[in-house]
Amino acid sequence: MDKAICFITLEQLLVIHEDQIDRYGGIHGIRDLSLLESALFRPQSTYSGEDLYKTIFDKAAALLHSLVLNHPFIDGNKRTAVVAAIIFLQMNSWKLKVPQKELVKTMMDIEAKKFTIPVLADWLESTF
């Protein structure tokens, strides 16, 4: 039997965002709650009872991709997205093995729409 996956809650995501803004600057606040909830729950999406994002890395990629592209916060979307994805994977027993500089470049590439979710999932799997 597979171990149950732990997902980030809205409350946890808001704390992550607040922490990133407090640490690195920017404007606090949610720009669009619907887009925030959409991004947060995307990794849990199913169709006909089947997970749309099969692996833990697919789920992390869906979360990261959606938070970056949906821009649900007024500021700090990429920072919040990468920290949320890292915490999500750590909550599920995975540890990060990538330099910060590469994380920053990847966030910029996601925003520039250079990554699809499957490509991002492969990248995440190679870095955890």
Question: Could you describe the 3D structure shown?
Answer:
- With 128 residues, the chain is mainly α.
- It has a single domain, classed as Up-down Bundle (Four Helix Bundle (Hemerythrin (Met), subunit A)), CATH 1.20.120.1870.
- It has helices spanning 10-24, 33-41, 56-70, 77-91, 100-111, 117-127, and strands at 46-47, 50-51.
- A two-stranded antiparallel sheet has the order 1-2.
- Helix 1 packs across helix 4, helix 3 runs antiparallel to helix 4 and helix 3 (56-70) crosses helix 6.
- It is globular.
Task: Report the order of strands and helices.
Answer: HHEEHHHH
Number of helices: 6
Report the sheet-strand fraction: under 5%
**Global outline:** globular
Secondary-structure class: mainly alpha
Write down the CATH topology: Four Helix Bundle (Hemerythrin (Met), subunit A)
Assign a percent range to the helix content.
55-70%
The low-confidence parts are none
Brief write-up:
This protein has 6 helices and 2 strands, in the order ααββαααα.
Key phrases:
128 residues, Four Helix Bundle (Hemerythrin (Met), subunit A), two-stranded antiparallel sheet, 3% strand
How would the blueprint of this fold be written?
Blueprint: H1 10-24, H2 33-41, E1 46-47, E2 50-51, H3 56-70, H4 77-91, H5 100-111, H6 117-127
Antiparallel strand pairs: 1-2
Helix pairs in contact: 1-4, 2-3, 3-4, 3-6, 4-5
